[in-house]
Amino acid sequence: MTSIHRPATIDSHQHFWRVERGDYGWMGEHVKPLLRDFMPEDLAPLLHRAGIDRTILVQAAETEAETDFLLELAAATPFVAGVVGWLDMDADGFAERLAHYRAQPKFVGLRPMLQGLDDDAFILRPRVLDNLRRVADSGLAFDVLTFPKHLPHVAEALAAVPGLRAVVDHLSKPPIAAGDLDPWRDDITRIAAFPNVSCKVSGMVTEAKADWALDDLAPYVDHVAACFGADRLLFGSDWPVATLAAEYGEVAHAARALLGRRFGPEDMDKIFGGNAARFYGVESASSPR
User: Fold this and answer.
1) Contact between residue 66 and residue 23 where contact means Cβ atoms under 8 Å apart
2) What's the distance, Cα to Cα, between the start and end of the chain in Å?
3) Contact, 120 vs 146, CB < 8 A?
4) Which residues lie closer than 8 Å to 254 by C-beta, 6 or more apart?
């Protein structure tokens, strides 16, 4: 019997951590269910059940040790297609560190954790902008982890570094639980006007009410779908953070259900794999069905 091949499906946003490493500054009793190790063997069966082939592994600590840890895991984990690591964007030695990691197998991008910094306008610091230009010149991807209040600053940075290929994580965490769309809606529209910027359909369930339903998420998904279109949306699970509000399969189902209302099969293949492969520059291998 001849095998039918389909495009690889990619989860563009997941994490691993080993708590004893001790550099996860955001962890605490407020996220108690997450205070344990989450490793490849925990995720593998969940991917299989959800029909996801590969992942992009994203940093969860603000250290180069975290980046090294993730690259080691990725080297030993075939389903990890690439790693988005962390580097100090405001350091004098950034160019050398960027060159070092650019040469590492599976290193595909970087992410400062803008949402947790004291300076909401950190991304506009002169040295950070200079280093963003280096990222743009390198061809690496840049993940934007923000709350809505940061988006005006991000828009300024994007205007200053037009060659930067960026992706907004988690729709920039709009206030889904409160049901508020503004001013997030206009700010996301402004961000989407930059052609090199994409958006991850991820992280929504942890911004929603505990008893969330698809209809709670729909206005936010509909807006980014209209702004970014099928070529600039990427599915991401945000596992295991998402387990505070939903199981892996529920997150994947919610994204498929909400996006499937607006896009046909070819576009859904892009959102659930092709776009991530292109954006992060990873192989878009097919899988037998």
Assistant:
1) yes
2) 12
3) no
4) 204, 205, 214, 217, 246
**For the segment 216-274, what is each residue's pLDDT rounded down to a tens digit?**
999 999 999 999 999 999 999 999 999 999 999 999 999 999 999 999 999 999 999 99
The residue ranges of every structural domain in the chain are 5-283
3-state secondary structure of 62: coil
- Closest by CA position to 198, among listed 231, 245, 237: 231
Is the Cβ–Cβ distance between 17 and 59 less than 8 Å?
no
* Cβ–Cβ < 8 Å for 154, 191: yes
Q: Are 12 and 236 in contact (CB under 8 A)?
A: yes
Rg of the chain over Cα atoms, rounded to whole angstroms, equals 18
| Residue 172 falls in which region: left (phi positive, over 0), alpha (psi -120 to 50) or beta | left
Q: Which residue has the tokens 């992706």?
A: 167
pLDDT in tens, 166-191: 999 999 999 999 999 999 999 999 99
The one-letter amino acid at 242 = A
What is the C-alpha separation between 63 and 177, in angstroms, rounded?
31
Contact criterion met (CB below 8 Å) for 200 and 220: no
CATH architecture of 5-283: Alpha-Beta Barrel (3.20)
